[in-house]
């Protein structure tokens, strides 16, 4: 993600006459110790008739001595510096143990060497008074001490531009409480020296680039790219060396601080010194910074011009899809994580967490305000997995597609973070009023109680001496529940139950016949609606079974309710009696119930399952009318509305490490753009992000994926059910192009991943799939069930799980339930893109392919990739070449999709580790994909688990500028198999290696293979002409314990693991052919020039050198 900039600095002196110019000293060349990589430097001096000598001053800084033999009226110095703004972590340094805490003392030798930087040159009462406020008695970590000192000066001394030469005295700066950057820096130098710390004055360029993303809190930096001459301070820390402090901003010096001169005194660091004859002079200067190269990056993936082109193509594809009557809708399940907490379990492994629920509620309210008119907020219950104490929550927002309000007054929706003081009396009062709204006798309202006998038994089972009314968070859920109930008392009702259903004519109810006359709830922590004793009701007869509504059944417009109108009357007016009865037999016991439960000071209404949306809308209207009449806000929970195309849904649920947003589908490109951009924007405002960073700085998605769904406005409109050959085209095309699977995937791929390809792990699957394709009809069909029957047993993982598949057809036309017959195809192989526009480009690619296959189906034989899939296509080069073929194919069919639009995905998926220029040859290292193995079962504290072996990694090596047959690349003394790319002088290969040694992994006796040392061997001369080295952890032993907090820290971690030096020294001799003869060689080594390692056979994985595997010559 490097940005290369050009700094153009011009200083001009216009004189009123011809004058003599004395020799000048220029300190305008980046110092040798600059950590910012300098690519180029140029100095132009006017007048051109001059002499120049480059020198280094006593402090090692570059300086130019200029002599002007002739008189001149103009003196100008024009400097241009080309620099890479690669992120530098200013805190990435080691400190000697004795210097870790302030105060400390330098050793005697170091004091002598640092004498000029320890010399105190200013004393004043103001400075002494300021120093007296610094606590030098308490030991504090030196970095913390310096941060506090630097920040304090930045806050106390105001910044002001001062064009006068020289530096203010410390007394003057402290008195005025204002100064230029050089004044504040010199003050900090003197403060540090008075405190016994060696400090020096630094003069240089400051470069500040506009941030791609505005900060949510704190300053975002300059509105435009900026550069100027600047001054700061550097302090010497044993072990770390010189560390830059910028008291103007209060920050430590980073990549934007490019030193020109660092000296003990400011006079020695002046950018320009010299003299002229007496004259009148007009002085001017300019400082300009220009971006001359920017690597693709996810924070700004596309320019505005590119985005105009992308939008234009999206709208053009829209026109084609509409003219061809495709009726395509697109939705998805993006996932987000906290931007403030990268390390806690709730944002890495666990599904539930306190912060996760709070942020999800905030995001839901924001999205409701953006997307829905008169939306209904619904707090439901989601999935419940083994090992989890309680079911997961599901926060939903539902709204009508006809523009009418489903819920009119948002003030009648109780805020979940507020205690209204609602109690059991409010629940009874609300229930009685609701009965009037529904036209039901209030006598059917029955209280529900907790099972006192069960909790009495549970209390008696406690250990002796344990107080049943007290429990801590460390106690199990059952114990905490018991303490809560005993504190509240179990003699009062938990809530009220109103059995209710619509029988075709109106709402009806019945009493629940229970032994003992009371309704006793099933023990648990869920809402009482989930704990109803339904098994205690009379057995269900065959005639009473609920008939699910067919999703293909035609729908009439939904009823429109007026405010204050009774639901029972309105239902009759809207002819709801024309619907078929969901329950046959009016005298039977009503088994679905609405529950009213006061909980945490709020009245929660648990809605029953309803088969027809018309009934649900009428019930919601009755609830709101009751809440309005009583002015009693409520929380709606329980069962969601029945799935229906007349209702849009937005759902937020927790998944391990993420919050998943089930976004409502869009029918048009502009609507899709609005949905995705709004979602990303509101998530950011909620302090949720779409990216995370691994411990070593690698950039990844959230880890929860970004599943994309294709379908229609109704199941009957689904293009996949109307044209089964569309699914065949998509599956075949993805199988032909592994690049589509791996460019957009997450880190975990392979047969045991969440979204395996059809040809991963099941060799015979392709054979059977070709038979299924032969039986798939062409064109439009009137048998929507056919595509599901043909593909259901083929689009599965190795265990037969239909959900874990790259192409998931769980909700296409599953025979089990109406919720499975929605006409949806889910692409599960997509990782979460970190930017909204990247996500939209991904969706545009899908839309182009759907339009292309609708016009011309793609029916080709399936390819048996074999081991190439996890060898060749693990490398970014071949993935990119494959995706290039896809783009070329789209362009041939009239879709001007640009390959450059996918560059941000390549940079995101395959981060760049480093480059090394060796003469005319460039060596580049990039991250490559490594499929992880799922290990055997192991017993853990939480039960039986199966670990994933993530200890093996892979990287790609690319060489360009090679002479054919001359060079060989070795890694750790073994030959890297290089394959030609089709471009002259360019070859790529892969290295597979053990990066770390976990307790559970394949081959536990193998050690790690790092660091990786690469040698480029010239076979014609028997010499290593250069190389580089790569590490998986910090080379200085600074093993990180927390994840990077942002992309800057992550980039800095990645950069410091690559060294453009460190090739093998001496003679690199491959081992003898027979290791038994090793002892017969003198010094056990054959004395000869460097010879290339022998080529190792690679029949199965010809593109990869596996350092874990020993090569034995036969």
UniProtKB/TrEMBL annotation:
Name listed for the protein in its UniProt record: Transglutaminase family protein
Matches recorded under InterPro entries: Bac_transglu_N, DUF2126, Papain-like_cys_pep_sf, Transglutaminase-like
Transglutaminase-like domain location: 173-249
Taxonomic source organism: Raoultella terrigena (Klebsiella terrigena)
Lineage summary: Bacteria, Pseudomonadati, Pseudomonadota, Gammaproteobacteria, Enterobacterales
Gene3D superfamilies in alphabetical order: 3.10.620.30
SMART domains documented for this protein: TGc (SM00460)
């Amino acid at each position: 993600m490097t940005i290369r900039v050009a700094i153009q600095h011009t200083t001009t002196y216009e004189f009123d006459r011809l004058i003599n110019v004395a020799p000048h000293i220029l300190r305008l060349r980046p110092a040798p110790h600059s950590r910012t990589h300098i690519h180029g430097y140029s100095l132009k001096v006017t007048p051109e008739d001059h002499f120049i000598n480059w020198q280094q001053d006593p402090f090692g800084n570059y300086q130019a001595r200029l002599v002007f033999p002739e008189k001149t009226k103009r003196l100008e110095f024009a400097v241009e510096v080309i620099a890479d703004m690669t992120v530098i972590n200013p805190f990435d340094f080691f400190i000697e143990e004795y210097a870790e805490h302030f105060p400390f003392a330098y050793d005697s030798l170091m004091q002598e060497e640092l004498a000029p930087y320890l010399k105190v040159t200013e004393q004043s009462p103001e400075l002494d008074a300021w120093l007296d406020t610094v606590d030098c008695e308490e030991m504090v970590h030196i970095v913390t001490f310096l941060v506090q000192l630097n920040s304090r000066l930045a806050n106390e001394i105001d910044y002001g531009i001062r064009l006068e030469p020289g530096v203010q005295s410390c007394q003057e700066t402290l008195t005025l409480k204002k100064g230029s950057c050089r004044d504040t820096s010199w003050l900090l130098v003197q403060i540090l020296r008075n405190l016994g710390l060696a400090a020096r004055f630094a003069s240089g360029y400051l470069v500040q680039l506009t941030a791609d993303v505005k900060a949510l809190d704190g300053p975002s930096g300059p509105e435009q790219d900026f550069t100027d001459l600047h001054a700061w301070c550097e302090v010497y820390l044993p072990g770390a060396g010189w560390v830059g402090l910028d008291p103007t901003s209060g920050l430590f010096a980073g990549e934007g601080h490019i030193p020109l001169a660092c000296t003990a005194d400011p006079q020695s660091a002046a950018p320009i010194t010299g003299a002229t004859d007496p004259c009148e002079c007009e002085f001017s200067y300019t400082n300009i910074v220009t971006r001359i190269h920017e690597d693709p990056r996810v924070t700004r993936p596309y320019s505005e011009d590119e985005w105009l082109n992308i939008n234009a193509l999206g709208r053009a594809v829209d026109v084609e899809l509409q003219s061809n009557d495709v009726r395509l809708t697109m939705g998805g399940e993006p996932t987000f994580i906290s931007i403030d907490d990268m390390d806690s379990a709730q944002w890495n492994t666990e599904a539930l967490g306190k912060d996760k629920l709070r942020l999800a509620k905030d995001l839901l309210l924001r999205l409701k305000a953006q997307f829905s008119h008169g939306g209904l907020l619904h707090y439901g219950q989601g999935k419940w997995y083994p090992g989890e104490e309680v079911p997961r929550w599901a926060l939903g927002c539902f709204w009508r597609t006809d523009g009418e309000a489903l819920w009119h007054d948002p003030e009648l929706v109780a805020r979940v973070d507020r205690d209204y003081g609602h109690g059991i009396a409010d629940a009874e009062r609300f229930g009685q009023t609701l009965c009037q709204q529904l036209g039901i006798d209030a006598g059917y309202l029955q209280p529900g109680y907790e099972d006192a006998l069960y909790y009495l038994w549970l209390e008696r089972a406690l250990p002796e001496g344990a107080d049943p009314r007290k429990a801590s968070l460390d106690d199990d859920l059952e114990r905490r529940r018991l303490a809560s109930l005993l504190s509240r008392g179990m003699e009062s009702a938990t809530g009220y139950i109103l059995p209710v259903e619509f029988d075709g004519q109106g709402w009806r109810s019945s009493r629940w016949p229970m032994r003992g006359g009371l309704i006793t709830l099933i023990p648990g922590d869920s809402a009482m609606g989930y704990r109803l004793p339904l098994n205690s009701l009379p057995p269900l007869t065959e005639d009473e079974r609920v008939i699910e509504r067919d999703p293909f059944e035609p729908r009439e417009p939904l009823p429109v309710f007026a405010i204050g109108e009774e639901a029972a009357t309105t239902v009759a007016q809207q002819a709801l009696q024309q619907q078929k009865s969901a329950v046959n037999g009016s005298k039977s016991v009503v088994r679905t119930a609405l529950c009213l439960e006061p909980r945490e000071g709020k009245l929660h209404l648990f809605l029953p399952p309803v088969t027809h949306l018309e009934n649900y809308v009428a019930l919601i209207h009755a609830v709101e009318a009751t809440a309005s009449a009583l002015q009693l806000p409520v929380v709606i929970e329980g069962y969601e509305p029945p799935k229906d195309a007349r209702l849009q849904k937005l759902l937020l649920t927790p998944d391990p490490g993420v919050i998943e947003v089930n976004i409502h589908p869009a029918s048009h490109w502009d609507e899709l753009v609005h949905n995705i951009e709004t979602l990303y924007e509101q998530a950011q405002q909620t302090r949720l992000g779409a990216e995370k960073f691994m411990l070593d700085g690698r950039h990844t998605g959230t880890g929860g994926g970004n599943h994309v769904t294709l379908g229609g406005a109704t199941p009957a409109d689904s293009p996949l059910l109307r044209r089964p050959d569309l699914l065949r085209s998509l599956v075949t095309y993805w199988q032909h192009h592994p690049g589509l699977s791996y460019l957009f995937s997450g880190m975990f791929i392979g047969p045991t991943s969440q979204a395996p390809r059809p040809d991963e792990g099941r060799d015979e699957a392709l054979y059977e799939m070709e038979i299924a394709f032969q039986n798939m009809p062409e064109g439009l069909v009137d048998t929507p069930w056919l595509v599901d029957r043909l593909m259901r047993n083929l689009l599965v993982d190795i265990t037969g799980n239909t959900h874990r598949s790259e192409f998931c057809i769980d909700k296409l036309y599953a025979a089990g339930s109406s919720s499975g017959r929605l006409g949806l195809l889910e692409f599960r192989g997509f990782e979460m893109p970190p930017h909204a526009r990247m996500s939209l480009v991904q969706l545009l690619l899908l839309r182009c392919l759907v339009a292309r296959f609708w016009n011309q189906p793609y029916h080709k034989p399936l390819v048996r990739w074999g081991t190439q899939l996890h060898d060749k296509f693990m490398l970014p080069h071949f993935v990119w070449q494959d995706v290039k073929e896809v783009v070329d194919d789209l362009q041939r069919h009239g879709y001007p999709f640009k390959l450059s639009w996918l560059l941000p995905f390549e940079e995101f998926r395959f981060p760049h580790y480093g480059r090394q220029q060796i003469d005319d040859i460039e060596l580049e290292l990039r991250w490559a994909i490594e499929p992880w193995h799922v290990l055997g079962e192991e017993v853990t504290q939480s039960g039986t688990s199966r670990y994933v072996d993530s200890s093996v990694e892979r990287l790609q090596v690319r060489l360009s500028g090679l002479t054919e047959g001359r060079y060989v690349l070795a890694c750790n003394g073994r030959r890297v198999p290089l394959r030609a790319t089709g471009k002259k002088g360019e070859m790529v290969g892969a290295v597979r290696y053990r990066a770390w040694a976990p307790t559970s992994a394949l081959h536990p006796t193998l050690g790690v293979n790092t660091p990786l040392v690469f040698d480029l061997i010239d076979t014609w001369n028997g010499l290593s002409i250069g190389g580089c080295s790569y590490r998986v952890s910090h080379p200085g032993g600074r093993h990180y314990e927390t994840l990077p907090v942002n992309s800057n820290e992550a980039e800095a971690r990645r950069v410091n693991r690559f060294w453009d030096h460190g090739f093998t020294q001496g003679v690199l001799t491959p081992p003898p052919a027979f290791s038994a003869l090793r002892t017969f060689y003198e010094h056990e080594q054959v004395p000869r020039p460097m010879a290339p390692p022998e080529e190792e056979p690679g029949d199965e994985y010809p593109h990869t050198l596996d350092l874990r595997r020993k090569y034995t010559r036969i």
